[in-house]
Write a structure and sequence with these properties.
By secondary structure, the chain is α+β, with helices and mostly antiparallel strands. It has helices at residues 4-10, 16-19, 44-47, 96-100, 111-117, 157-164, 168-171, 239-251, 267-281, 289-292, 298-308, 312-326, 332-346, 348-367, 379-404; strands at 13-15, 20-25, 37-38, 52-54, 56-57, 60-66, 72-77, 80-81, 129-138, 141-150, 185-195, 201-216, 220-230, 261-262. Helix 8 packs across helix 9 and helix 11 (298-308) crosses helix 12.
Length: 410
């Protein structure tokens, strides 16, 4: 049995995800409104792999941001903190130093000074060039959104971005802050434009994306989307697709852009990308219903790249989504033909692995006539893995097709 000291120590281990709370403050009343609170998806990038904090009871870590300029407040409260003199020198984890290491400088530790700073949002305006403005109907109420593109040459943007980028720690796994001194980074930010005092416009930060300009031979560029985040209070509204459309608008018309790629996309972002790309490709002649019933071909890849800057790998994926959409799943012959087309593509890496294995076997035999123990997995095992891989992919495609139903007319 645990002794009382051990049990008490365990009771002072806090889950850091539970302890953290965020707010985007538009007005002073939001400070006391629990409905404005949202939580992190992860905290291991600040508080370690275990995502725990030791030495506190009833711990709360408040990270509040003014909605526009992102003035930041950090507050730590608890009902009890362990005293090392009472527990043989065991100390509580330090919280603020870990946060200070990640947050932008000049944050507020006083709620009064933070409240006073909210006045800055009355004059806050987004940095950069307006790329896209649109309106959404939210239960009969019109909400207005805008997307801007900026770089570090805009006055005040570097300081704003230092505050904005801290959100990646809580919502993008394996996130790194981009090098703001590298001019090849482009920054896209989304805002909600709403009426403030006396009808003057105010802006609330909604999300952002970063894009890096890679070189492509001989005189081209290949923009790579690195980080995309819509803040939790605004997720589920389709805003991620609008942010991606704004990014596309910036690059699609440029002759020097070869294609647009994405760096290690999350499952959620890949779904958004699939939706936007499939919707765009559905307007291309090479992706007509008649052509979709044929195998993926060179004209599809070329038209997708030339008109939409979609790379070949993503164009093939879009072809599979659009073909799945027109496939009659109740028709066994039609459905089986579709599955075979996708599985053949999924099996290509295994085919190459087989070829490389045969070459290796031949080389080893030439060096040593003795029997080698190297072997590939049995075919039955490969078939099972292939079927599982296909089922996962089909489920992902189904979600995209469901969203496409209201957008594309057969």
């Amino acid at each position: 049995m645990e002794d009382s000291v051990t049990a008490r120590l365990k009771s002072l281990v806090v889950n850091s995800n539970d302890a953290l709370e965020f707010k985007m403050i538009r007005k002073v009343q939001d400070l006391e409104d629990d409905g404005t609170t949202f939580k992190p998806e992860m905290s291991h990038q600040v508080f370690g792999d275990s995502e725990t904090i030791f030495g506190y009871r009833d711990l709360k870590i408040k990270l509040y941001y003014s909605a526009g300029s992102l003035e930041t407040y950090v507050g730590v409260s608890y009902s009890e903190k362990i005293c090392k003199d009472s527990y043989e020198g065991i100390e509580a984890d330090e919280i603020l130093p870990k946060l200070v290491d990640k947050l932008a400088p000049k944050f507020h530790e006083s709620i009064d000074s933070f409240t006073e700073s909210l006045k800055k949002d009355e004059n806050f305006r987004p940095h950069g060039e307006l790329l896209h403005a649109f309106t959404l109907d939210d239960n009969g109420s019109a909400r207005h959104f805008e997307v801007y593109k900026a770089d570090m040459s805009y006055k005040g943007f570097k300081e704003y971005h230092q505050r904005l980028r801290t959100f990646v720690l809580w919502y993008i796994d394996a996130a790194n802050f981009v090098d703001v001194d590298d001019d090849l980074w482009h920054y896209f930010t989304m805002f909600e434009k709403y009426d403030g005092k006396v009808g003057s416009p105010h802006y609330a930060t909604i999300g952002f994306a970063t894009v890096y300009q890679y070189y492509a031979y001989p005189r081209n560029t290949r923009p790579r989307i690195a980080q995309v985040l819509i803040l939790p209070p605004f997720q589920g509204m389709g805003l991620g697709a609008d942010l991606l459309r704004a990014i596309y608008r910036e690059y699609v018309g440029r002759n020097e852009v070869k294609d647009i790629t994405v760096e290690d996309p999350s499952v959620n972002f890949q779904r958004i990308r699939d939706f936007v790309d499939a919707l765009n490709c559905s307007t291309l002649s090479s992706f007509s219903k008649e052509n979709l019933l044929q195998p993926f071909n060179k004209s599809m890849a070329e038209e997708a790249r030339e008109k939409l800057k979609i790379n070949k790998k993503q164009a093939r994926r879009v072809y599979e989504i659009l073909r799945f959409r027109i496939t009659d799943l109740s028709n066994e012959k039609e459905y089986r033909e579709y599955r075979l087309i996708v599985k053949k593509r999924l099996n290509l890496p295994y085919k190459r692995e087989q070829q490389d294995f045969k070459k290796l076997q031949a080389a080893l035999k030439n060096l040593d006539k003795r029997q080698t123990n190297i072997a590939l997995p049995p075919k039955e095992q490969r078939y099972e893995a292939l079927e599982k891989e296909y089922r996962i992919l089909e489920e992902a495609y189904k979600k995209v097709v469901e969203r496409l139903q209201d957008e594309i007319q057969l």
